[in-house]
Specification:
The structure holds 2 protein chains of 2 kinds. Chain A is an all-alpha fold. Chain A has a single domain, classed as MetI-like fold (Orthogonal Bundle), CATH 1.10.3720. Chain A is 87% helix and 0% strand. Chain B has a single domain (2-117, 180-274), classed as 3-Layer(aba) Sandwich (Rossmann fold), CATH 3.40.50.300. The chains are: A mainly alpha, B alpha/beta. Chain A binds chain B through residues 83-86, 142-143, 145, 147-152, 154-156, 158, 162, 166-167, 170, 245, 247-250, and chain B through 16, 18-20, 23, 25-28, 79, 82-84, 109, 111, 113, 115, 117, 119-122, 130-131, 158-160, 174, 178.
Chain lengths: 250, 276
């Protein structure tokens, strides 16, 4: 209990120090390029009251989730197959390296050119950027699977589904968590770029608008609120899931 | 009537034991050429095989102990019988049990591995429920069996909290709960203290007497084999062949008498030495 108290006091103190530093810098610079924290807060409240910020935030979040989910499922499947079959791995290894190194911007531009400026192309572009990362991480996990548990599953005739759920996935959980963590962080940043380039709503689109107006307080208000939402997901979704998945560990 | 027929002309050393053809991925499996290179000077097809010319017939309900020095291929033989390794010359066939309606081809196999191999991310109860048939679930069979084996309080524990003796008991419970036609056991009592091992042997005999099942138990301990087995098969050599295959004609009282055990040991030793 006291530990928790110390921790939250620590958190408040560290945030307070950051705000103080920001305020000082703004006072010293005295430029519209760096507004006071209070100004940003006012802009934020105004944007919430008009429902503008919640709307664009929700749109971006929806894209982030769909793209994240798609890339986790597809990437994990590819990684699993590559990690379990030496032949497939040898064949597709160079493909994976290629896709890992294609710049995100190129994928986005090509998707828009090939599939048009639509929602599907946007989500696809984001997923394609993340899938190789997930596949590479999950491949390591699949390679490290313990043979004796697979033998157990085979001799007791678990079947594919049961083996996957009770034998394979629990061993992959740490790799899953690692790629989900880095995945969410990467995906939402790419979503912003996708929105900037070819969508007419979402945080990325709004940021583009504010950039043209040199509206720094709005840029900061949108950024901070989105970072806060992603932090909430980390705290209230990922952490509890990880705790549950690691219950069995000593 | 023969229930299980094992005919192995040759089992090469080309795959890791327990790794069936389809499973050998991720790591490079040594080729036959590299296996031959491992033992230069040996004739072709000699040192590259683990098992050679093994022909055994088992009846349903027999308790068979397979005895042999460590590393001679006993585990490989069990993996072949379990169907984990299909990469060998010969065939292993079970006569279908006619009295069972749920059999989807093939016998029910309970395998007690050398390590307990409990899924560490599932509780003891879940580990048992995972192998149970759908019609067994929800009737509390696992609770009953666990308490019968002195593990009543362990059902919700994770395997990390169990001692080695308890883990081995759970592993045995998992094999028994499926009501196996054949129970394969790979050195199931190794690295336990003697009283714990004796207790587990006693438990095993009780289950074998109460319900008919074929038992194939692998051990390097001849005393253990004599205590438990109705029939003892000795594997030895490289490649391993059957050196001895006889029934043990001892009463239950004689089996726990050190004098009878020693006498039988000497007899087995003499007969296996006499052979080339």
């Amino acid at each position: 209990m006291t530990l928790r108290l110390v921790r939250s006091a620590n958190f408040v103190l560290s945030i307070g120090a950051f705000l103080l530093l920001w305020q000082l810098a703004a006072v010293v610079m005295d430029s519209p390029g760096l507004p006071y924290p209070v100004t940003v807060l006012e802009v934020f409240i105004a944007a919430v009251q008009t429902w503008e910020l919640p709307y664009h935030l929700a749109v971006t979040l929806a894209r982030t989730f769909v793209a994240f989910g798609l890339s986790m499922i597809i990437g994990a499947s590819i990684g699993l197959v590559m990690g379990r079959s030496a032949r497939v791995d040898r064949f597709f290894d160079s493909w994976l390296i290629l896709f890992l190194n294609v710049p995100a911007l190129v994928v986005i531009i090509l998707c828009y050119i090939w599939f048009g400026l639509n929602e599907a192309a946007a989500v696809l572009a984001v997923s394609l950027n993340k899938i190789p990362n997930v596949a590479a991480t999950m491949r390591e996990g699949a390679r490290a699977l313990d043979r004796q548990y697979l033998d157990l599953a085979r001799s007791y005739r678990f079947g594919h589904w049961k083996t996957l759920r009770h034998v394979v996935l629990p061993q992959l959980a740490p790799f899953f968590a690692a790629s989900a963590r880095s995945g969410l962080a990467l995906v939402w940043k790419i979503v912003l770029v996708v929105e900037l380039l070819g969508r007419s709503n979402g945080v990325g689109f709004q940021l583009h608008l504010f950039f043209q107006l040199f509206d720094v307080p709005s840029i900061l208000a949108y950024t901070i609120s989105f970072v806060a939402v992603i932090q909430m997901i980390e705290i209230f979704l990922f952490k509890p899931w990880e705790r549950a998945a690691n219950r069995w560990r000593p | 009537m023969t229930w299980l027929r094992i005919e192995i002309t040759e089992k090469h050393y080309d795959t890791k034991p327990g790794y069936g053809g389809s499973g050998s991925v991720g790591s490079k499996s040594p080729s036959r050429a590299s296996a031959a290179a491992r033992s230069p000077g040996a004739g072709p097809g000699q040192a590259t095989s683990v098992l050679k010319d093994i022909s055994l017939e088992l009846e349903y309900g027999e308790f068979v102990c397979i005895l042999g020095p460590s590393g001679c291929g006993k585990t490989t033989l069990l993996n072949l019988v379990a169907g984990l390794d299909k990469n060998f010359e010969g065939h292993i066939s079970f006569r279908p049990a006619s009295d069972r309606s749920d059999s989807k081809g093939g016998p029910r196999i309970g395998y007690v591995f050398q390590n307990p191999v409990l899924l560490p991310w599932r509780t003891v109860g879940e580990n048992l429920r995972l192998v149970m048939r759908p019609d067994q679930i929800g009737r509390g069979i696992e609770t009953e069996l666990l308490s019968e084996m002195g593990l009543a309080d362990c059902q919700d524990a994770y395997p990390r909290d169990l001692s080695l003796g308890m883990s081995r008991r759970v592993s045995l419970a998992r094999a028994l709960i499926i009501e196996p036609d054949i129970l394969l056991m790979d050195e199931p009592f190794v690295s336990l203290d003697e009283s714990m091992a004796a207790e587990l042997r006693h438990l095993l005999m009780r289950f074998w007497r109460s319900r008919p099942m074929t038992v194939l138990l692998v051990t390097h301990d001849s005393r253990e084999a004599i205590q438990l087995g109705q029939r003892i098969i000795v594997l030895a050599g490289s490649p391993a062949t059957v050196r001895f295959d006889e029934m043990v004609m001892l009463t239950n009282d004689q089996r726990i008498d050190p004098l009878y055990i020693e006498a039988t040991r000497r007899q087995i030793l003499n007969e296996t030495r006499a052979l080339p």
